[in-house]
Write a structure and sequence with these properties.
Layout (H helix, E strand, L loop, with lengths): L4 E3 L10 H6 L28 E10 L4 E12 L2 E7 L5 E8 L2 E6 L4 E5 L2 E3 L13 H5 L17 E3 L5 E7 L2 E9 L2 E9 L2 E6 L4 E11 L14 E2 L9
Parallel strand pairs: 1-8, 7-15
Antiparallel strand pairs: 2-3, 2-14, 3-4, 4-5, 5-6, 6-7, 9-10, 10-11, 11-12, 12-13, 13-14
């Protein structure tokens, strides 16, 4: 099924979501729809998510841009989370809320925000979009896509619901790496690193992230409110500044 899409564009010099454009990770080739990401320990993402807060340091390198940021992930359950990005000086860049199919994005640089019930996509540089609701699984080292019905990723190779070919490697009961193939060539590949991972695209872009903090959330996840001074716009406009 084809979903309506709201696209947010950007790079690292002016854009609204410099960090997210990098973090979204190159995973342009991944599918949208079909449920939550797949953990090695729990196929189909069936294990409950413990409410927790994670802090990451992210670096992006591409053919034309590079940069770094801090990223905070607040995850209440599989359908509700928030991402808060800041620069290396701690200045807020943007906030993203995903709550039961509702999306809200605040851009602190332009004092604007948007809301949408459509899947929000952020194209990484020169790459196809990945729905942002896959990001928590990506950051935690889970597969960002579910195998098609009847496929088993434990064998080391599977097809997703779009018919794309994936190969995976395991070690000590953990997912160590995966590769997305296109026309019999690797298109996108990820490998685990200590407390993080590295994601690379054949066009030369790469994202690295490392978790610095992981702790339980002691309070319920509050709704992401937009300041009264922020202007509401369509999500498709946020990346055009």
């Amino acid at each position: 099924m084809v979903h309506p899409r709201r696209r947010l564009s950007g790079g690292w010099s002016r854009p609204i979501f410099p960090a997210l454009a990098g973090l979204v990770l190159l995973v342009g080739g991944c599918v949208h729809g079909g449920g939550a990401g797949v953990a090695v320990e729990s196929p189909q993402g069936s294990a409950p998510v413990v409410p927790e807060r994670s802090l990451f340091r992210v670096r992006f390198q591409g053919p034309r841009e590079s940069g770094s940021m801090r990223l905070a992930l607040y995850r209440a359950d599989r359908n509700r989370f928030q991402l808060r990005a800041s620069d290396t000086f701690g200045r807020s860049l943007w906030d993203l809320s995903v709550a039961d199919g509702n999306y809200r994005i605040l851009d602190h640089r332009s004092s604007r925000y948007c809301e949408s019930k459509d899947e929000v996509h952020v194209p990484a540089i020169a790459l196809a979009p990945l729905p942002v609701d896959r990001l928590p699984d990506m950051l935690s080292g889970r597969l960002p896509v579910a195998p098609a019905a009847g496929e088993r990723f434990e064998t080391g190779e599977f097809r997703d619901e779009k018919g794309r070919r994936w190969t995976v490697e395991f070690g000590s009961g953990m997912l160590e790496s995966w590769t997305l193939w296109e026309a019999n060539e690797p298109s996108l590949w990820w490998r685990r690193q200590e407390r993080g991972g590295v994601l690379s695209h054949r066009k030369g872009s790469q994202v690295r992230w490392r978790m610095n903090v992981l702790e339980p959330m002691t309070e319920p996840l509050a709704d992401l409110e937009s300041p009264p001074s922020f202007e509401r716009v369509d999500c498709s406009l946020l990346g055009e500044i």
